[in-house]
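Backbones bend. To wit:
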Amino acid sequence: MTTVQTPVAGPARAIEPLILGFLDYLELERGLSRNTLDAYRCDLMQLGDYLQRHELLATEATHGDLASFLTELDVAASTLARKTACLRSFYRHLRREGTIEHDPTADLRGPRKPQRLPRVLSRDQVARLLSQPSGATPLAQRDRALLELMYACGLRASEAIGLELSDMDLEEAMLCARGKGSKERIVPIGRQAVAAVLAYCNDGRPSLIAARAGGVTRAQTRLFLNSRGTGLTRQGLYKIVQGHARSAGLSERMSPHTLRHSFATHLLAGGCDLRSLQEMLGHADLATTQVYTHLSADRLKHAYFSAHPRATGAG
C-alpha cells in the first residue's frame, strides 16, 4: 500500500505569513501606496524562493545569506538599492515584533546609486507648454488648469489626479496636497493657475459631469475629470502631458514630474530658501530637496561663463 505523505512546509511557505504581517504594517501604520506594497511583496517572495533553494528559513538567515541573495540578482543598481531597502525594513519589522533576536541586515549595504540630475524646462519652455491647450472646449479648459496647477504647485502626478474640490481654496489661493504616505501639505497657488482652475470649475468641469449618465458618484468630487465625467487616471494624465509636450516640441524625456522639477528649480533660482521649498515639495528629508541646488549651480555657472568678459580667457 502506498502511503501518501503530507508535504512539509518549506522556507518559501514559512515566509508568507511574515510577509503578510509586514505588508499589513506598511499599509495600516505607514500608509504606503499600493504600488510600493506590490513591489515589496515581489521582492520578499523572490527572497522566499532563494531561501527555498538553499533550505533556509527567513528567521534564520544571516547577513551572509542575504548578501549572497543580493549578489546573485542581475538587476539595475536602482532596483538592487530598492530590494536592499526592502530587506532592511522587513527585518527591522521582525526584530521589533520579537520574531528574531538579531537583525541580519544591520550592516547590509546596497549599491550607491549615481546621482542623476532631473530634467527641467526653461521658463520659456514652460510657457510654450502651458500655451498648448487652446480653445474653450471642456477638455482644453481642463488641460490648461491641470498644467498650470502642476507647475504652480510642484505637484506629483498622484497628487494632481487625487485632488478633490474640497482641497482647493481659490479665494485664499491655497490647496491641500496629499503626498506620499498620505501626508498633507498646504501649497500656495499662483494667480494664473487660480484663473485657469476657476474657469475650468465654472465652465469646463460642469460640462464634463453633464456628459456622464447616472447619479452622482465619488469620482465626481475629484477636481480633474476625464471625458466620461469620472476621475482622471494616472495614465490619462501622462497622455495629456505628453500630448501637449509633443505639440510644443518638448516630448523628449518629458513627463508630469518634469513640471515638478521645473517648479523647484525656478523657485530656487528666484530666491526661494531651501527649507520653504522642502515644505512645498513635501520632502521628508532636506537632502532630497538639495538636488535642486546642483541644478541652480549649473545654471549660474553657465550664465557666468556665457556673460563674463574674462571668464574664458578670451577677453
Residues 1-9 have pLDDT under 50 and may be disordered. The chain has two domains: 11-96, 123-306.
